[in-house]
Specification:
CATH topology of the domain at 4-125 and 184-220: 2-enoyl-CoA Hydratase, Chain A, domain 1
Structural class: alpha/beta
Number of helices: 16
CATH superfamily of the domain at 4-125 and 184-220: 2-enoyl-CoA Hydratase, Chain A, domain 1
CATH architecture of the domain at 4-125 and 184-220: Alpha-Beta Complex
Largest sheet: 6 strands, mixed
Length: 356
């Protein structure tokens, strides 16, 4: 079976990520097939809208094929550069896609899955969606446009998600501006079936009409554009209190000085997660988001790609992947402690960013 399935159904272009055993993690073949297909459909008048979904019930897409990137680096090849170059190109293209692009973000949506969904004109989640940018846990940083979309979350929520790697629900994603619509889980199958017939008698539908038709269809299914039970909304005050500081050390100090017994469990879990992350990744992520807040989408991708080259040489990626994915000993030996990560350390990593 192909890793990606391409179908045309009554005016709907359907792309199915078809690696359920790998939680639909996206590889280079899938990136290329998606890009070529979307380019073709852009000029195909019979296609009125595009739906991207994941096979199986567990995931939309749980990220990029990290193991292949690791093996390329370990063997001294350049396959990983090819993958990141083409993945980033696809991600940026989706933001500018001229036809309605629907990302059905069910189950796990992580890393590369966010890359192919955040530029969508319709980002549809369910209450059971599990959304995260967990890169700091493998000694990396939020890429695929993370410096753009995380920096545009309310207040300090994007930084909180980026440096803890916590999983957000579908309700959280809508509150955090990482999704547009919440659709009840039991209506997902009907949603897909309905999309396959929505445009079958609409030969002359233009993009604006297709957008309007999709909005009316989602409303008909009682999909919501507001969150009802977002944990992020309930905890936003304490997230802002502790993660609004200028550097990671201050965030740790703030969390450790929290004396409200009602917050002790949340603080303990948050500090526990941060202690496992690469200190270099956390500090880098904070700078990325600080800079990304003032950059365009294209500039954010350029910044991430420029950083990526230095990171693979000087960052914690290889050790993080070795520990958590290859050897699975869960004992990464990070290059630096938090106290050792200086401004000069980060400046070295960002040396090519100013040139991009």
């Amino acid at each position: 079976m192909s890793d990606i399935l391409i179908e045309k159904r009554n005016g709907l272009g359907l792309i199915t990520l078809n690696r359920p055993q790998a939680l639909n993690a996206i590889n280079l073949e899938m990136v290329r097939t998606m890009f070529t297909t979307l380019k073709t459909w852009e000029n195909d008048d019979t296609i009125k809208a595009v739906l991207v979904k994941g096979a199986g019930e567990k995931a939309f897409c749980a990220g990029g094929d990290i193991r292949t990137v690791y093996e390329s680096l370990k063997d001294g090849r350049s396959d990983h550069i090819t993958f990141f170059t083409e993945e980033f190109e696809l991600n940026q293209y989706i933001y500018q896609y001229p036809k309605p692009y629907i990302a059905l973000m069910t189950g796990y949506v992580m890393g590369g899955g966010m890359g192919i969904s955040q530029g969508a004109s319709f980002r549809v989640v369910t209450p059971k969606s599990k959304i995260s940018m967990p890169e700091v846990g493998i000694g990396y940083f939020p890429d695929v446009g993370g410096s753009y979309f995380l920096s545009r979350c309310p207040n300090a929520i994007g930084l909180y998600l980026g440096i803890t790697g916590v999983i957000a629900s579908g309700e959280d994603a809508v509150y955090a501006n990482l999704a547009d619509w919440v659709l009840e889980d039991e209506k997902v199958a009907d949603f897909v079936l309905g999309l396959e017939t929505l445009f079958q008698t609409s030969d002359n539908v233009d993009t604006a009409t297709a957008q309007k038709t999709l909005i009316e269809y989602l409303q008909h299914l009682n999909a919501r554009k507001i969150s009802m039970q977002s944990h992020l909304e309930k905890t936003e005050g304490m997230i802002e209190k502790h993660f609004g500081h200028l550097n990671i050390k201050e965030i740790f100090d703030s969390l450790n000085s929290e004396d409200d017994p009602k917050l002790s469990e949340w603080v303990e879990k948050t500090v526990g997660k941060m202690k496992k992350q690469s200190p270099l990744s956390m500090v880098t992520t904070q700078r990325l988001l600080q800079q990304g807040r003032h950059k365009s989408m294209q500039e954010c991708f350029q910044m991430e790609f420029a950083l990526l080259g230095e990171w693979m040489l000087l960052g914690d990626f290889m050790e993080g992947v070795r520990s958590l994915i290859i050897d699975k000993d869960n004992q990464p030996q990070w290059r630096y402690s938090l106290d050792q990560v200086t401004t000069e350390t980060i400046d070295r990593l960002f040396i090519n960013v100013s040139k991009s």
